[in-house]
Backbone:
């Protein structure tokens, strides 16, 4: 078909479709969003016809942006399009001129569309048809916040499939980032202000600007797209284009309250219906609804509440954006903390000299200084170790490379900032996790992770992050509530889920019947901070070569270094024959070994055995009826004597009357009395004797509470408690007491334990 014939054909088609849509808009006979969708579909068809005429070689692709990209095109809108080619070519420019003439030139039959090419790399100053390489380079290095929001609505219309795939993949990566970036809210404040200043309508005017007015279409779309960009990197299901669909998804994900979502959906439908109406009157690109004109009943009805609805929309948008940070002075801020001048020079100067990395330094330096001032104010109010907190803050800022997004996020999330200051002042262990992996902060906000990846390398990084995030979340909670049961259950659950996920992934490459038998603290569902994983690989089916291949890879993947360290350290010394034994054992062999050959200390250890996400037989039943002979009791007592620390310094684990002494004693009682425990935990073991020795149960739990708190607040791993120890003062503060009273309390409980253990422990009597 010749250009002139197609030119006429396109206009005739356009006029017919537009007239039908305009009639629907003027009498409100069709849902406004459906009308926009139908008009967008017609636009796609008309643009595709013109494209095929002008670019017959199909080595270029056509994309829609703006309202057409989201299939929400209004009746007299420009169409925002983007061409991308695989290489520079003069023929493309010739085709572009033909394309624009076919659509935009006015003839006796009118025009098809006003076509806007400005949403391209470099805007009006960039090449009219960028290459894929230019597209990636520009947005990868120079893309701004408003462009990230614009590309939320990028959609391919037609053209080369390979180019479409590359552009769409990069656009998603550009718009939706995995980690939170709250600087876009600051950019939106400025962008919103510019829009409202440029399109300001006097309060007494007889018109309402449906698009640019406060609480209008543009406000609502900015609000919606900002939430999609912030959350869409973590949750790909939020990578959607349509405004209505986005609002409903945001509500379903509990990001947006249901009542606000319902209001905004209704408000947006109403605004788009009125916009279509005013544009259908004269086929003009206008968004002004004139109040003094005569309108049909559906318009006059909508006008009764439109002003208040726009005000409500404005309030919701303001709630998201918050207040802009104010310029502050940091002089003499640290004097309020009472730090020595030497500390100020050593720490504060290093902090303040780390300039923010940003292309908008004026805005982001203000945010950084506001953050630092607020951090100091919080430290002063909390009363923690200010020097320690500032030291970790220095490391944290360095690890973030002073990125503006972290400062802006923390300024917006005041409760998170308080928690960060508290962690830095009270927990070296958790602080080091955050300083080594600052990107965990956004997951810390959400208390969640993405679904695990199918790719093994990516999965391993996700599992390492899952473990660190679990310790970060549960550790920060434990600092506040000291709820030991919840802490141990959550840390154990994390280990179970990580081990199960890795085992499942490896079985795809090495199909086999290997299952995991947890032992030690893991087996007892009482895993703490810095605990190893004690376990055994057990074959529940027929042996195969894959059994050993999977086991070796499981060990190497779990222990190899990832960002922030390995996932877990592991201990497999409790397998039959110890270090010399095979790393995988058939279930029947293990049952036979425990029934007939196991040493007494092995039977003791297997009391804490538990299958991980597998329903297997109880192994304790294989040997519990064997009881203990006098020589075996003597052997267990010898082992106890080797483990018990005779040092005068109190050690929560190894002092006589400490946790290990209690654990070994109650395990001996169960074996000696042939009692199968109710579960695999020490607390479950102790419940067997709780009525006779209630203080033993209470004191054991108390010592584990202190042990786990020490892991969080001590600069090094220790179970020792002493007035001279540098962390003991912090420990006393955590338990709301004085150091001397805390030491006295621990000593008294140890003494109570010794009395109970003397009566309880069969190893200490005559054999």
Residues:
């Amino acid at each position: 078909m010749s250009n002139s014939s197609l030119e006429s054909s396109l206009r005739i088609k356009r006029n017919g479709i537009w007239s039908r849509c305009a009639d629907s808009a003027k009498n409100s006979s069709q849902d406004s969003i459906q009308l926009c969708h139908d008009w967008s579909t017609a636009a796609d068809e008309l643009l595709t016809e013109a494209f095929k005429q002008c670019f017959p070689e199909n080595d270029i692709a056509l994309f829609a942006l703006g309202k057409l990209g989201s299939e929400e095109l209004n009746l007299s809108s420009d169409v925002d399009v983007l061409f991308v080619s695989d290489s520079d070519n003069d023929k493309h420019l010739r085709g572009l001129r033909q394309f624009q003439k076919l659509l935009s030139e006015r003839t006796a039959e009118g025009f098809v569309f006003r076509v806007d090419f400005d949403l391209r790399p470099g805007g009006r100053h960039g090449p009219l048809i960028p290459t894929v390489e230019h597209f990636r380079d520009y947005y990868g290095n120079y893309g701004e916040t408003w462009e990230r929001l614009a590309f939320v609505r990028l959609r391919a219309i037609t053209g080369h499939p390979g180019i479409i795939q590359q552009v769409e993949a990069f656009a998603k990566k550009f718009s939706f980032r995995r980690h939170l970036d709250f600087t876009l809210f600051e950019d939106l404040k400025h962008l919103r202000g510019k829009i409202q200043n440029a399109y300001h309508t006097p309060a007494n005017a007889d018109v309402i600007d449906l698009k640019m007015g406060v609480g209008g279409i543009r406000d609502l779309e900015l609000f919606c797209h900002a939430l999609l960009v912030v959350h869409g990197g973590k949750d790909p299901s939020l990578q959607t284009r349509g405004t209505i669909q986005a609002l409903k998804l945001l509500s379903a994900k509990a990001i947006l309250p249901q009542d606000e979502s319902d209001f905004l959906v209704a408000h947006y439908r109403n605004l788009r219906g009125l916009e279509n109406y005013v544009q259908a009157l004269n086929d003009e690109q206008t968004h002004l609804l004139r109040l003094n004109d005569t309108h049909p009943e559906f318009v006059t009805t909508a006008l009764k509440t439109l002003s208040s609805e726009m005000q409500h929309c404005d309030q919701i948008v303001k709630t998201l954006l918050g207040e802009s940070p104010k310029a502050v002075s940091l002089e003499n801020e640290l004097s309020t903390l009472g730090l020595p001048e030497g500390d100020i020079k050593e720490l504060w100067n290093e902090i303040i000299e780390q300039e923010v990395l940003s292309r908008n330094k004026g805005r982001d330096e203000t945010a950084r200084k506001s953050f630092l001032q607020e951090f100091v104010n919080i430290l002063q109010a909390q009363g923690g170790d200010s020097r320690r907190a500032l030291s970790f803050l220095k490391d944290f800022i360095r690890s973030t490379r002073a990125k503006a997004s972290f400062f802006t996020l923390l300024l917006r999330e005041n409760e998170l900032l308080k928690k960060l200051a508290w962690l830095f002042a009270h927990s070296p262990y958790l602080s080091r996790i955050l300083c080594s992996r600052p990107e965990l902060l956004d997951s810390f906000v959400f208390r969640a992770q993405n679904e695990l990846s199918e790719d093994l390398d990516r999965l391993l990084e996700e599992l390492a992050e899952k473990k660190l995030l679990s310790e970060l979340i549960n550790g920060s909670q434990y600092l506040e509530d000291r709820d030991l049961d919840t802490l141990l259950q959550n840390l154990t659950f994390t280990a179970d889920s990580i081990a199960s996920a890795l085992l499942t992934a490896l079985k795809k490459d090495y199909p086999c019947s290997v299952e995991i038998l947890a032992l030690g603290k893991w087996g007892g569902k009482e895993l703490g901070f810095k605990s190893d994983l004690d376990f055994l690989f057990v074959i529940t089916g027929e042996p195969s070569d894959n059994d050993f291949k999977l086991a070796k890879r499981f060990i190497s993947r779990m222990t190899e270094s990832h960002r922030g360290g390995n996932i877990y350290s592991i201990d497999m010394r409790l397998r039959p024959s110890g270090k010399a034994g095979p790393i995988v054992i058939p279930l029947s062999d293990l049952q036979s070994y425990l029934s007939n050959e196991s040493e007494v200390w092995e039977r003791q250890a297997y009391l804490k055995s538990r299958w991980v996400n597998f329903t297997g037989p109880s192994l304790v039943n294989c040997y519990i009826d064997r009881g203990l002979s006098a020589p075996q009791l003597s052997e267990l007592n010898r082992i106890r004597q080797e483990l018990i620390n005779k040092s005068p310094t109190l050690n929560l684990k190894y002092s006589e009357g400490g946790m290990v002494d209690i654990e070994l004693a109650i395990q001996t009682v169960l074996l000696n009395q042939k009692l199968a425990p109710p579960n695999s935990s020490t607390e479950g073991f102790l419940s067997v004797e709780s009525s006779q020795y209630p203080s033993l149960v209470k004191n054991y739990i108390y010592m584990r509470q202190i042990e786990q708190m020490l892991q969080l607040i001590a600069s090094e791993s220790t179970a020792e408690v002493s007035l001279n120890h540098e962390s003991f003062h912090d420990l006393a503060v955590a338990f709301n007491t004085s150091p001397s009273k805390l030491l006295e309390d621990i000593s008294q409980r140890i003494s109570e334990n010794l009395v109970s253990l003397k009566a309880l422990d069969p190893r200490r009597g005559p054999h």
